[in-house]
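Work package 3, deliverable 3.1, input record:
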Amino acid sequence: MSEFRIKINGRRRSVGDVSFDVINTCIMIGLIIVTFYPIWYVVCASFSAASAVTQNPGKLWWPVNFDAGAYEKAFQHPLILSGFRNILCILGLSLPLNLVMTLLCGYFMASKNVFFKKWIMMFLMFTMFFSGGLIPSYLNQKSLGLYNNIWALVIPGALSIYNAIICKTAIEAVPDSLIESAYMDGASDVTVLVKIVTPLIKPTLAVLTLYYGVGHWNGWFGASLYITDNDKLPIQNILRAILIANDTLLNQGAASMDVMNTYAETIKYAVIVISTVPILCIYPFLQKYFVKGVMIGAVKG
Amino acid sequence: MRGNMTGVKEKSLKKTLVKDFKMNKWKYLMILPVIIYIAIFAYKPMYGILIAFQNFRPAVGMAGSKWVGFEHFTRFFSDFNFFRILRNTFSISICSIIFGFPAPIILALLINEIKNTKFKRTVQTVSYMPYFVSMVVICGLVKTFCQSDGMITDIVVALGGERKNLLADKSWFYPIYIVSNIWQYIGWDSIIYLAALAGIDQEQYEAARVDGAGRLRQMWNITLPGLMPTIIILFILKMGGILNVGFEKILLLYSPTTYEVADVISTYVYRIGILEANFSYSTAIGLFNSIVNIIFLCATNLISKKLNETSLF
Amino acid sequence: MKKKLLAMLLAAATTMTVLAGCGNQAADGKPADEGAATSDEATASDKAGNNTEEDGSADEAEAVEAAEFAGYPIDTDEVLTLWTNQIMPSSTVASWEESPFHVTLAEMTGIDIDYTFPASGTDQKQAFNLMISDSNLPDMIWYSFMGDAESYIEDGIIRDLTDLLPKYAPNYWKFLQENPYYDKSLKTDSGKYYGFGFFRESRWQSAYHGPMVRQDWLDECGLPMPETIEDWETTIRAFNDKYGAKFAFTPTWRVSPGMAGAFGAYGTVELALYIDDDSKLQIAQMQDEWKEYITWLNKLNNEGLLDPDIVTLDDTGLRTKVANGQVGLTNANLTGLNSFILDAQSSGNGANWVGCPYPVMNKGDKTCAIFCEDPVVPIVAGITTSCPEEKVELALRWLDYPFSEEGFLYWNFGTEGVSYEMVEGEPHFTDLILKSELGAAEAAGLYTGEGGWGCGIQALGMVQQKLDPAVVEAGDAWYYGNEDAGNWTYPSAVTMTPEESTESSTIYNAINTYVKEMALKFITGEESLDNYDAFIQTLNDMGAERMLEIRQAAYDRFLQR
């Protein structure tokens, strides 16, 4: 392969190398098209007249009979602002807590030569498979006062064992020699975790932040159980309420005699756009942590 | 002699413990908040599992509900459709793992090979967007595309297939389910691998390049082994969820003519346990699910431990 | 004292007259309505109208006791707590404190209610189960717990109202006494009254699903409105030849009976239970008539006249096909018809959807079954044991209000001069509701309480005024003349014990899954109808007999109440 070399941009590259790039680029472009079309469809549908969406099922290349009524209707909802405010508070309180708990748990799980590690891990992982179920959890939370306030949505979701295991895997990839030498220098576990491990697993922490963040953002179930005041609900519950109020199929209370709303069809697309755009905006900020060579720099430094 | 041995053992155990606590004092202190948290929020309500052995009624609570032993389990195992839903759950799950699990790994490897940063970011961002589209809308699109005059049906017809509603045909159900799943989750699932890629030592690539290794060879010899721990752990966790085939998507896509292949445990629980608020029955089935899942998790973990020393615990 | 009594009686009499008036309005030009109503399933209005005079003196004893009651608004500082998934405030306001209906209701009754609703977008059944698992209950719960009422009384969750209703809820008590079927439904098998129900003024409101057709296509093809099954075939074939349109319906429980009535059958693809002429419960799919009906559908399918997507069709899918002119004859609900009309208007394709009568076998026949829900809706408001003794009367008064003359108007139409005006003695919505930018349904939700389900009596006029005239006509075409054909349904107030209910629902679920699967396979031809006997055999093996036995016993207990 290396015998056939051609010169591109002053660099010598093999034919295999170039053809690999070409094929890879083609695959990626194909992927973008396949993935993007349905997303584009959702956006177009959200800006089209409801009847146009009904008449062009699955086929929209551009908004037909432009109509932002679905958005107008969604934003008319009196609780949409409080919903955004509430989710921001939840994220602000939750994410630091999530990261601290996950690091503590992941660090312990990744540690070596700890006598009770296996037992504690089993203790923790058991809860991935068994839970007391809805009613006991509800009564438990209510008795702790985690009911109808923001902490009801923050504290119970402080740690996901699944994410802790991902964190553990990343910590295990940190070379032992680094940690050993830190111990030699007299560093405690807290120092090792804060000064050495955390900077090295930044990419994974970025992913975990994304996992937790998106989890909180999309999570409506907890709020539906533990919040009774509408003005304390996070945005996702408000959006669900808008969807349900506009969909006679879901809205059992409307008992099939009421008139279907004009925006019933388009509003569900608008809701997707409203709830997704903020997360899409965050992603590029996290993306920079996925850059190659973080570890190398740290090891050398 | 024997007594002496035990004494030595006890002594050494005590010694080990003291040494362990001394050495790992901070580690134990650090895990303490996690243990307390889990004890309060996961173990305290755990008594609720017992309602699987009751005829639980929310109005009177556990104290007032009747104990029925294993009645719900026998009812489930003797259900007319028990074997069918068990078989379908395994089939869908195993197919999803075979085709769905490697997909994000391949995507991450390919994205990793893209040189142009802007293009790379675009691919990443676009590929993870479907994750955020709600299931109802996705299934609505799948239905539209697969109906007798839909876009996918048109393609199938052009390739020599028969014109019909693909979703009503049981041989098409698995491909549709799995491909749409891959489509929805491939980008999101690849994020974790991309993060792991960032941790691979770049010097290894330099060395390989000097040795004249091509791109595919580098991918195979350096990148993939670098990802292996993550892949294995995620695989073990995946096997620990083998019976967890979500009900929402199947509920939205299946139809009476595909029940035969598509009806799974979770849709069954949805119909009986959730729609009728039969807490005991759904808890009993949930317990059965968990036990099967744990068995699979431990087995996979054991095999992985034997084969390549990466394991969960 | 005497004056008060007289006033009370007068008030009661006027209530009934008003109710009767609303009923007559609906029955105008359709005399069949009054004649055909059987004694049990008589509409609220008919019975009320007939009985007003005789009952005046019979209720005197109760009236004397109740006469101490000074009428609404009641002068009290007490606040009642209520948990409900009904009268949830419109989504255009942030909470019930901003909802005109709730605020004015407190003024009209004089009773302040502290409402707890399941938060927006929540699964209401789950919210109810969580609420009830807590020992600290609100004073009143208002939810569809009809089937559990007996055990809730036994468990000490809700109060037995038998002795209290005549004293403190005179309007409701009178209403129940005048409507034996409702009376039977709102007490348990052991004769205990458990709560306040929701009733539809006419069964017209329960018959909201039926056949509909494109009148413009019928005209273009020179065809009359199809009446017999043969006409239906002709119409479907003509539409297919000329427009490439097929016959379609969504395979849900609402399509039972669908077109089955013409064959003497009662169900389509979902498991349907019906009550035969001897008050025996039967499975529709085990009848020979059902086999004939399915054979007919299979024939349509084999001739390419049935939509190929019928198996996966849902309401949105049907709406799309209708909007694109792929369907010209279907079986759907009034909401669907309304949206077909809206779509046609906005696209301007000239489609003119109208209701079509239920098909029959031979001209002049009557269909044996139409879609018609039980007149009793399983929603019920009860008073819990957590409600302190001194507040019980107040709670009863509040719940009795919708059954009073004033309350009936308020709950259905809101405030006079604001959301409705009296025109020739009948309440009519104002433009505030009918021409609202929010749409009539949403606007009515701000001012009234009976739009979906509610408490009290849902006025027929209130429902019809919000619908397109063509939709109202469709409802007329289905219901009038077929009043008896709705009596096959299993009453919603039948109660099973928790054990019975668990056993029967397990069997019911298994059978329903199997029936749906096989019925659609029979229709699409994937399964030959020669296997019909094997199908019946499997149903029996699955415990069909046992399920019917349990349900029959519960039904018999219901009849004996």
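The radius of gyration of chain C is 25 Å.
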